[in-house]
Each structure stands twice: as C-alpha cells, then as structure tokens.
Amino acid sequence: MTSIADKIKHAGWPTITEEMHQNGYSVISGLLSDDECDSLIAAYHQPSLYRKTVVMARHRFGLGEYKYFNYPLPDLIQNLRTHLYPYLASIANAWFKALHLDIHYPHQHSEFLQECHSGNQEKATVLILKYEKGGFNTLHQDLYGDIYFPIQIVIMLSDPDKDFTGGEFVLTQQVPRAQSKAIVLKPKKGDVLIFTTHFKPEKGSKGYYRVNMKHGVSEVKQGNRYALGIIFHDAMS
Fold first, then answer.
1. What InterPro entries does the record point to (predicted)?
2. Mean per-residue pLDDT of the chain
3. Cα separation of 15 and 126, whole Å?
4. CA–CA separation, 50 and 5 (whole Å)
5. d(C-alpha 61, C-alpha 131), whole Å
C-alpha cells in the first residue's frame, strides 16, 4: 500500500505550484481512499478526539457544525499536515517574496508550529465539518491570530451527488477597484483542495499586488456533507 507521504510526494507539484500561482487553488485527486474518508467520518462521533464544537448558527457563520481536533492528532491527519506543509511553504515563500513581504516560512512544519507557540497560539486548528440539508458556510478567512500560514486544504470526505447534493465549495476573489469574482468547485470524495487562506499575488503592469480571497460552502440541497479542514497554523482559542 502506498503511504500518504509517497502519494503527496508524487502528486505533481510543478503543476500544483503553477495552478496556485495562477488561480490561488489546486486539487489533488483521490489522495485519500474511500476507507480513509469513511474512518474520518466515523470519528466525528468520538468526543475524546475534539477540543471544541462550533454550531455555526449561534455565531451567524452559516448553518452546520464543526469540531476542532485536539492534540495529539490522529496519525492520518498528522501525516497529511506534516508532509503537505513543505511543498506549500515553498509556494507561500514565493508569494511573499513577490509581494516584498518580510516573512519567510521554515521548511519543516514543526519549526513553524514553534513560532505559533511562541506567540501563544497553541491550540490545534484541524477541523471536521458536517452539513445537513439546508446547511451552508458564509464567506470567511481562517486566520486565528497574528501568526498564520497563507495556504490551507479541505478534503472532501463524502461523495457528491451520492451522499449529498449542492454544497459546492465557493471561492471569491476581490480584485482592487473591481467587482468580486466567484469560483465554484466540486471536489470528489478523497480529493484534496488546496487554496489560499488570505490572498494571492497577481501580476500587474507595475509588479505584483495582493488579491484577497474568501471561501465558503453553498447550500446543501439533500443529504449529509462531511469535509476535513487542515489549517497549518495553531490558534489562541
């Protein structure tokens, strides 16, 4: 059986990097097996794994529920976070260099987490999200503190058009002095959607400038939609 680390290594990073530079998002198809997705869904009902449950309607975030994992993370999630980070850090560093921002991300995720902890950001931010019929998530950015990593991922755990309908992933791109652009994506079960947490660089006639982006989920029409969100910085609360 091919390990998660090997699957990530051979995911096609030159193409992913180019797509991230151009669009602010990219998809790795079928990184997780059906069994791995199903095991994560089953884990939704194990309270000991989680530090916090958020009911979106109470905070006007949308309609649905999500749970933050506690440390130590399950092995599968820990491996995903550890082995994806170095590739994404290279992309993030290229972005910040293009925008002349004086931030450099270390190559190893453990080193970046040490920076988070030095800023009193010590709580795990990996989360699993559940939407039932009528559920949705309003447009937002997952920053959690002054120290943040500018790229994150969502892994679709349910099977679109079989387990649920609707529930598309939505990105909006705010171009300066112009109307926002909406991007609608429909990842399949086991797909990894990589996208910008905050902004991406865009090349203009006078160099690179920032294009801010937000993400959310459209209304689920039928069924249950589960997804795993992996954010690479830790949180204060």
1. DUF2086
2. 95
3. 26
4. 25
5. 12
Tokens found for residue 2: 């091919």
Residue of 73, 17, 8, 122 lying closest to 229 (CA atoms): 73
Q: How far apart (Å, rounded) are the C-alpha atoms in residues 51 and 68?
A: 6
Is it the case that residue 1 has pLDDT exceeding 70? Answer: no
Q: How far apart are CA 107 and CA 34, in angstroms?
A: 30
| Average pLDDT estimate for 143-170 | 96
**SS3 of residue 94 by DSSP:** helix
In contact, 199 and 210? CB cutoff 8 Å: yes
pLDDT tens by residue, 159-170 = 999 999 999 999
Of residues 85, 199, 208, 202, the one with CA closest to residue 150: 199
Amino acid in the structure at residue 134: G
